[in-house]
Each structure stands twice: as C-alpha cells, then as structure tokens.
Amino acid sequence: MPELPEVETVKNALVGLLLNQTIEDVFVFREKNIKPSLKEFLSIKGERVSSLSRKGKYLIFHLTNDKVLIGHLRMEGKFFFRESEEFDKFDLIVMKLSNGFYFCYNDVRKFGGLSLYHESDYLTASPLAKLGKEPWDIEKEELHSLLQAKKKTPIKAAIMDQSVLAGLGNIYADETLLAAKIDPREEAKDITVEECERILIESRRILEEAIELGGSTIKSYHPQKGVDGMMQNRLYAYGHKNEDCPRCGFPMHRIEVGGRGTTYCPRCQKRKKYPFTILLTGPIHSGKSTAASFFASKGYSLIDCDQIVKELYTKKDVLKSVKGILGKKAVSKGVLNKQFVREKLGKDRNAKKKLEAYLYPLVKQEVLKRLEAIGPKQKALVEVQILPGSGLEDIGDYNLVILSSKESQKERLRLEGKPAEALLALNKDWPERKARLLSSQIVFNTYPEKEISEKLEELTYLFD
Ligand SMILES: [Zn+2]
Description:
The chain contains 15 helices and 18 strands. By secondary structure, it is α/β, with parallel strands linked by helices. The protein has three domains: 4-129, N-terminal domain of MutM-like DNA repair proteins (Alpha-Beta Barrel); 135-264, Helicase, Ruva Protein, domain 3, CATH 1.10.8; 276-462, 3-Layer(aba) Sandwich (Rossmann fold), CATH 3.40.50.300.
C-alpha cells in the first residue's frame, strides 16, 4: 500500500501533464469509486487543474471554482496518463485533458477512488477532518499526549493510526521503530516524551529519504509507468526477517502486531517490561527438554507451558469450565479425569477446539505474568508443545524449532525403554510446516543427545 513518500512521488510525477489543464470530458466507468453522486462529480467538466497538494496518504487536486478532488490509492490504485482512448478494464475514472492526454485512475483492487469537495469544506469533512498531523508538523509533547490516549495499543499500531500521525504505513512504521530503538509491541501509554522525539526525528528523516528516492517499489507500486522507486533498497527492517540487523548483527525477528507483519531487532528494540524471550517448540520427544536444560545452564529462566496447563487443571474455576466444555465425566472427585479427557479430545475435534480456545488465553496470561516477574535485561525460554495457533506466537524474540527424524526419536525411546510407536503417534498432527514458517532457527536433533548441545552452542548470539 502506498505510504506518504509514494503518494508525494506520485503527486510530483503528475504535476507536469496535469497543471493548468482543463478537464474537457469525464468518464466514470465505476460509480462506486467516486463521491458524492455521479451528477455532482461530472460538474468537474470544464474546470481547470490549478494546483496539487497532499495530506498524509491523500492526493488533493485543486480545481477552478473552488472545487477539490481528493484521491486515495488504497491498496493498488494508480494515476497515469494515456495518449489515446485505449482504456483497460481497471481504468475506473478517466478525464480528458486539454493537452490531449487522458488522465486515468486505474485500480485492480477497486478500493480507492476520487471524491469531490469544495475548498471551504474539504479539510473539515471526512476523511481529512480525522487526519492527524504529519511528523514535520507535530511536537513531541503533542504526540506524547495522543499516545497516552491510545493506552494499551501497541506503539506500531498507534503510529500507523492516521488520526494520531498522518503518513506512516506498515513499511515506514517498522523502519521508524528500528531507527528509534523501540519495540513495536510496547504499549502506547508507556512511550516517553523522549521516545516521541526519537519517533519524530527518525520518521522525518526516513520519509524525507524515501521521497528523495521516489518511494519503495514493493509488489505493484510504480511512481510512473515503467519507473521504480529506489527506497526498497534502503529498508532495514521491512522484508528482512531472519537477516542480520544492520546495526548489531542480531537476527531480525518477524511477528504480527495489530494484524500486520512486523520485523524488528530484538537486541536494538528491547522491551521495557519483559526479558529477551526464546520460544522453544518441537514435536514430542524431539529433544526440547535437552535444549531447555542447555539454555538453563546459560542463565535462561525457564517457563514450561505444559507445566502451566497442569497447574491450571488444579484450579477449581478452571475444572468447572473444563467440565462445562467436555462433560461431567471430565472431572471426578475434584480432580481431572485424564484418561477420559485424552479419549474425548482424541475423537471430538470440536471439543478440542473449544477447550483450546478456553485454555490458551489463560496460558498466555500466565506466561506474560511470569515473563514480567523475570523482568527486563534478563533472558527467558518458554517451552511450548505446539506454537502455531497457541496465541503465544508473537510474544517471543526468537523462535527455536527442534526437529528430529523418526528414526532417531525411535532409537532414543527404545533406549529409554518406552513404547516408541504409541508415543510417536502423538506427533501425527504436529504442525511442522507452520512451525517452520514461524522459526528463527530450526535445529535438527540427531542421536546421540550431546549433539544438540553442540549445535545450540553455535548460536552464539543468543548467549551474549
Ligand atoms: Zn540490532
């Protein structure tokens, strides 16, 4: 999606062929992409384009007779000129100009468009009325009080909120927070005035550089037909999952914040309340506990989600809810009936889902509580049997996946005198593909045990 620098670049590219041209004719091929009504919109016919401006991600065309057109490109909208009437099906709005060119709004996704306003009301009507100030026009104290009002909203989502700060989207929000050394998950209310100053200084610098380089060409954005922006080569966070941080060399970590893919450096962007956190996952008997002991020997505090679940099952209110979900037999004499629960979950997928939807948030709450108790400037390792879908995916700084071949798992279980086939059957539904996608590092555990410690020892950046 185009952000402030891309829209500024588009604006500058349009000026040459658009300025002082009279709109001789108007073709609206899709009424949904114009506002207010077709009849009113067509009144731009005969007007001249007197100037172009921009606010946030909005393009503003000032016409004669105080008419104003506001354009928003949304996902993949584009403005360009055609030399003849050879329109394509994504040319939604076309204006024939007095210089002979056809000025087209083209949108494959059809989310953007043009709205007609008046000079006297376009700034006070939606959408511009709600638009916040751009980073150049706001003081750190004002940004600070706006962020205070956003309370627990993650700082990344807060600075992307166009009513707080106009112009930053997903890409430049990641870049700004990396440069300002602020974890994207930090709650808006915890951001200090001094950090607001860093956000403003860095966002201004990054946006200015991006404007100078013509924006970032990622997927479909092109400032002009056949022209690429150059800023994508100067992005250090966006798109650099698992690559070395350009400042400290630590692997960049990708999580989701407010539903948006987010890449940050866990070392440069440390959290204020929580320790550096590794999430450790892997199928049963892949060697997770060996890995956990290894990290404990390196000074990591351990949190085991299986243990948390066991503790939850001893609580009266939890047992009551479990009974409500799985039926009366799930609890007998105030204790969880493990065998019944195991059998019920094995054959009833729906019940399993319901139980997970109830338990996972409780586990997450407890994990966060324990991480907070461990505190910042420390290291913690959270062991979780199944990471994808657990709700814990985005709480760590590094996701370590331990995998093991069936043969070496079998060998290990055989030597421990355990029933290999039955135990390995528990791994049948383990979501390996999803776990790989979330991983910062995959370690293959082959027999014998000591090899896993040797492999982990190589991940030196985790022990500084
Ligand atoms: Zn770094």
